[in-house]
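About this split. The held-out portion is used to measure sequence recovery: a designer receives only the structure tokens and must propose an amino acid at every position. Recovery is the fraction of positions where the proposal matches the reference. Here is one held-out target exactly as it appears in the evaluation file.
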């Protein structure tokens, strides 16, 4: 059988093709062997050029995941080493600055690490516990400095803990100087909240409801602590 001569579509060189192939309805690839090998080599080169780009993308994704893992590890380490030191059920009367009960501490499992967390039932941070009575004694000059240092000390706590400062309850007495001192101190607390980024909580209603005032002093008994504590549960709080 005589073969048909077909020109290569790549280089134009003629090649012999069996006519029976065309009779069966199959397409004839009009390319010589040399052009076929050349085309395969070009495809391989394109594939090889894509490999470095893919490797670069994977390296970038790996670096991003490593950075996230490192940041998470630092947060867990910070939460483990510097938990919020909050007293549960600490009662303060008159000018007493020592907590009456032990610190309530619990641990929670988080991945492979453990960190401390605290429930604020009747929470006074020991560092700032004297600020309230200082104001009632009309000695509020260092209130802003004390609160600012207290907030800065609480910042290393886990990001899930929200820092809140309670305003000083308005003292129902006739002494205007004391009332003015309390008002000015609360203004300073609100101003600092915008500067330091903490939450301000009003507790006037709870304090007056349970009659916590006695001779111009505030006594945090169990009922008042329970009432305020439910509002502040899960936060790091300073009075």
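Reference sequence for scoring:
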């Amino acid at each position: 059988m005589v073969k048909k001569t077909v020109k290569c579509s790549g280089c134009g060189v003629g090649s012999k093709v069996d006519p029976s192939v065309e009779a069966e309805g199959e397409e004839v690839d009009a390319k010589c062997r040399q052009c076929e090998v050349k085309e395969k080599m070009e495809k391989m080169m394109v594939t090889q050029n894509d490999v470095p780009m893919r490797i670069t993308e994977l390296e970038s994704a790996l670096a991003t995941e490593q950075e996230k893992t490192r940041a998470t590890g630092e947060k867990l380490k910070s939460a483990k080493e510097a938990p919020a030191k909050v007293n549960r059920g600490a009662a303060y009367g008159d000018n007493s600055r020592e907590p009456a009960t032990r610190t309530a501490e619990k641990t929670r499992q988080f991945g492979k690490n453990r960190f401390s967390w605290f429930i604020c039932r009747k929470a006074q941070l020991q560092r700032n516990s004297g600020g309230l009575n200082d104001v009632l004694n009309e000695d509020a000059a260092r209130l802003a400095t004390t609160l600012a240092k207290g907030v800065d000390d609480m910042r290393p706590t886990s990001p899930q803990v929200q820092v809140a400062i309670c305003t000083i309850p308005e003292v129902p007495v006739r002494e205007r100087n004391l009332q003015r001192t309390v008002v000015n101190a609360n203004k300073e607390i609100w101003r600092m909240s915008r500067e330091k980024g903490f939450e301000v909580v009003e507790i006037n209603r709870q304090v007056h409801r349970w009659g916590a005032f006695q001779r111009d002093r505030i006594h945090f008994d169990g009922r008042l602590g329970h009432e305020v504590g439910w509002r502040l549960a899960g936060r790091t709080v300073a009075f």
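Annotator remark: The mean pLDDT is 63.
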